[in-house]
């Protein structure tokens, strides 16, 4: 019985793992994320990957760009 409960608990944990992914903090309050803010949440994020996520090339990641990158699996912790 304990094995079954442990397996169920592990399955639940793995199923909700994405809900606990890092979220960048908009430290300057401008409504978007700078490269520094993104790299604080995603230390493995490269400048090249940031530029790829920044679809409009304005040097900031807005909510649409962030969500698109998340859905595409580009933001891994």
Structure description:
The chain has one domain: Recoverin, domain 1 (Orthogonal Bundle), CATH 1.10.238. Helices cover 48% and strands 0% of the residues. The protein has 4 helices and no strands. It starts with a helix and ends in a 6-residue tail after the last helix.
Major sheet characteristics? none
Distance between the termini: 34 Å
The count of helical stretches stands at 4
- In one word, what is the shape? globular
Keywords: Signal
Domain EF-hand: 41-76
Organism: Rhodalgimonas zhirmunskyi
Region (Disordered): 57-77
Key features of this structure:
77 residues; mainly alpha; Recoverin, domain 1; 48% helix; 0% strand; EF_Hand_1_Ca_BS; EF-hand domain-containing protein; signal
Gist of the model:
The protein is mainly α and 77 residues long. The protein has helices at residues 2-15, 35-41, 47-53, 63-71.
SSE arrangement:
Layout (H helix, E strand, L loop, with lengths): L1 H14 L19 H7 L5 H7 L9 H9 L6
